[in-house]
Amino acid sequence: MVDVHPYGVTAFDYYLNESVYYGTTKSIEPIKCTTESDEEFMKKSRCWTKTALAVDFITQKVYVIDGETEQLNLMDFRGDHLAILMTNLDQPKDVVLDPRRSLMFMLQTSSILQANMDGTEVKTILEDPDLTAITLDHDNARIYYSSSCAIKSVDYIDDWISPVLITMTDDEVSSLAVLDNQLYFVGIFEESGRRSLTSCSIVGNTCKKFQHNVIDPWLASKIQSIKAYDNRKLVPRNPCEWMNAECEHLCVLTNSPRSYTCICSPGYRLNSDQKTCTRIKNYLLYIEDNKIKRSVLEAGEQFLRAVDSSTLIDASALKMKKLISFDYSFDGNFLVYTDYSNMHYADLINGTTWMIKGRVDCGLIPAIDWLSNNLYYARNCQSQNSQLMVRSVSELSASFESDNFLVKFSGHVGALVVHPFRNMIFFTQYSKEFGKYLLHAIHTNGSKYNFGRNIAAYETGLCIDYVDGRLYWLSEDAKKIFYANFDVFEPKAIDIPIISNPRTISAFNDWLYISNLTEIWRVNKETGGDAARAVPVSTSKLKVIHDAKVFRRVLQPIDKHHRQGEIADVDLKLIKR
Questions:
Q1: What's the pLDDT tens digit per position in 284-315?
Q2: 55, 48, 43, 119: which is closest to 80 by C-alpha?
Q3: Does the first or last residue of the chain, that is N or C, have fewer Cβ atoms within 10 Å of its Cβ?
Q4: In this structure, which topology does domain 282-563 adopt according to CATH?
């Protein structure tokens, strides 16, 4: 028995006769194992919401449904590598595996999906509006599932013959298990909410010889989930055992002649040899709803294709009806985003995140200087003037109290970008005098810099084109985009009539990537023409695109010679708070 007091177990599965893998209700805690005491064990899973968990006992992998991001994740027993097998699931509840046949099944609120264990060949095999539980009878290749106080069964090998009714129940069934033609199910009494464990013998696709209160009623009332195991069966040969089948990251079972496939971790792509992995260095990085997503920027393609979605974003900003802002460091492989008042760091390689808690009455807007590894951020507080603050990105666990103050603003700051080579910060600030947002610039040490005068701008939508040396911003009514060179300030306008209510801009090569609340467009940065959707429109009212930026090395070059200018690098030790 495992004591996780005071936390509860959210999901578990059994590995042969050796150990139990499980997740708890404790926040930011990785998957645990009863035979592993290392605190670093599976730490990359700490940000997942472990709604369901299943163990592949052949290749030693853990499949985990993250209910918050609605995706299916995979991790090896060592915790060295992880993969995202399926995204955009519809309220997933459970995942069950048939490793001997290399198949898996996902229970959603109103459907059951079947797929190979590498996430390929996904298909909906059953639809029902009230699904509550699922289990497999591996010996007979049958799915058992519960719906509307009924337990039904269907064969998943012989062309999906229509489901048969096994039995009706008086109460909702929350969990199922099958072992040796014996069906076990947990019922929840509607009035009291108490639970009971019942079993029956399966004879000719019907339940007979019911046995109620299989275990002590008090213990049964505490049951959340049940699983059945048969350790008498021999474990099939592991095709990944020898040198991980030469897979650089993950060797995963699949329904193919060689029985396995190689999969790469998030941020990597599988090479043509189908074994090694190469880091994806060029893509569009964006936040939709509570997910960080990426779309690969393939040269020569008219449209961009989605690769995967990864990393949990705290959804509190959506509940507060505030939009998330973010910036990233290419060399550091991390992203910083805010959920209005809190600052979050997300590792773009392993998906881990951590948070610095801020004041609930202060909104934050981040901008990263990737050369000096400083994080600048505007702090808009309801009870005081807005401030521009700076901290080292290495101070990941420190509170905001130790950060350094640069300058104070009388009006709300809407957008913020930093130019490390020119030691300059550009931002939009609301002017009470003019009743609109104006464009401003300062040096990174807080001293003023004249860049135009009383230039009206939209609240958001600042962007630096580091290749051509330009600043882009949205017009006051957000119907045009203006840009000007840094050396010669002569603003030029670009019409974007096809894009309604734009909010953010990112520049790369000949293109601008422009996002609004539901989609991301790509247009020519000189003319606004050749418009194409880079990210399709979101059909769900609940999903909002918060921010989008192109992720590429050329946009964050490292050349220390360009840092030798009139304004010296920021030394945080010399800045007075």
A1: 888 887 777 777 755 444 444 444 444 444 44
A2: 43
A3: N
A4: Neuraminidase (2.120.10)
